Every structure is written in C-alpha cells, then in structure tokens.
Amino acid sequence: MKVHHVVEGPDNGEVVVLSGSIGSNLNMWNPQVGPLTEAGYRVVRYDQRGHGRTPVPESPCTLADLGGDVVELLDELGVERAHFVGLSLGGMTGMWLGIHRPERIASLVLCCTSPKLGTKESWEDRARAARTQGMTTIADSSIQRWFTEDWRSANPQEAREYHHMTAATPAEGYAACCAAIGSMDVLGDLPRVSAPTLVISGADDPATPPEQHGKLIAAEVPGARHEVVEHAAHLGNVEQPARFTELILGHLAATAR
C-alpha cells in the first residue's frame, strides 16, 4: 500500500509523522504544521488506507497493516527513526509501532485514542452502516463526537468542512479501517513501549473519555505522562490547536534534551 503523503519543513529537521483519525484526511493536521515546521521539524502527514488520496484496500485491514504502512513510508523517505503523533486511529497506529517497531520510533504522542475501543460487533455495525446508509449519515454522527456543541456553533463553516471530510471518505475505505479498530486490543502489550510517550485527552471527548482511555494508556506505558485539555472533544488538535501544539512541541523538545 502506497499511502498518499505530504512532506513539509527543512530537509535536515527531525522527522515528525502525523497520523489521523478514521473518517479524516491529512488536512486535519493543518493547525499543527506551521508551528512544527517553524520549530525546525520535517513534518510528514499521510492519509490512512482508503482515506483522502490513499487507495481503498481490497479487503479489511488490521492495525498491523496500518503500522506497516508507516514503516514502508519511512523506508521510502529514507528515515530511520521518527517522532510519531497520532490521534484516534492514528494513536492506535502509534501504539502498534511503539510495541512492534520500537527501533523506528523516537517518541510518541497519543491523542484522544484507546488501546481497545468498543467491540468487534459494534465496529462491524459501523462498517455496515457506512456501506448501506452512506457516509453522509456517518458524518452526521461523527461531527457530534469530534467537536463540542459550543465549538460547532462558533465555527459553523469549519464544522461543515470537517463534516464533508468524513462524508467524502469512501465507504469501503472507512469500513476497512473499522475492521482494524474492531480487532484491536493492545492493552496487554503497552508495557513493551520504550519510546518517551505523552498521552493527550480531550476533557469533553465522548469517543475516548480521559478516565477510561488516556489515563489507562499512561498507566501502562512506562514513564508516560497524561495531559487532559479542557473544552476539547475528539478532534482536540482542531478544537484547541494552541494547547495541543504546545504540548506536542514541549514533548518533542524534552525528548531531544
């Protein structure tokens, strides 16, 4: 799988890979790109399988498939080790990499994510809904989880753009990644993660509430730190970009030190 990707920032900068949520594309990281490149990092964003401009896979995928895509992307770019920042499905990908490809990961930032989310059956239902009811229906519910009501009311145009981001995702691509989430359970392997890890949760995230998910990850990953950002739902990097970016940059700087 050749994932569509964009590389920005200085050629000699430390590489930071940004990995996004199911139902999104690489544009969800727009708020972070400028500050990261200005700080001297080489930023690599990519679209998950079946999302954005990455081809739709021929069959359901696993977390190992998604993690393998990142390893192949790093190989293609000639990058031995990278910092990895992932949100939701991207964070799940990051945990897989930290467990199974630790030599490729300099540090991890795991945002609004979970080591085990829902059941296989619930994600099969979500995939079925995408295929039969259409992605606009999926987007209608996703936008409620992604952002708080206050943010949606204050940013109606941006909310419509993110709704369209999900609605434009191919149903089969979305369903393939539903299978990866539904079959995922990395909780027991988290103590194997050796990369310096920051876990960020949105205080108002209905999809991965901090107490049940972010706190659990930080408790299992050796030395991990957990931060909870107020007034942020699931796409906290968009709803509270300044605070998320500050935390990411601080973690990267601390890792370098």
From TrEMBL:
<dbReference type="InterPro" id="IPR029058">
    <property type="entry name" value="AB_hydrolase_fold"/>
</dbReference>
<dbReference type="InterPro" id="IPR050266">
    <property type="entry name" value="AB_hydrolase_sf"/>
</dbReference>
<dbReference type="InterPro" id="IPR000073">
    <property type="entry name" value="AB_hydrolase_1"/>
</dbReference>
<dbReference type="GO" id="GO:0047570">
    <property type="term" value="F:3-oxoadipate enol-lactonase activity"/>
</dbReference>
<keyword id="KW-0378">Hydrolase</keyword>
<protein>
    <submittedName>
        <fullName>3-oxoadipate enol-lactonase</fullName>
        <ecNumber>3.1.1.24</ecNumber>
    </submittedName>
</protein>
<dbReference type="InterPro" id="IPR026968">
    <property type="entry name" value="PcaD/CatD"/>
</dbReference>
<feature type="domain" description="AB hydrolase-1">
    <location>
        <begin position="26"/>
        <end position="246"/>
    </location>
</feature>
<dbReference type="Pfam" id="PF12697">
    <property type="entry name" value="Abhydrolase_6"/>
</dbReference>
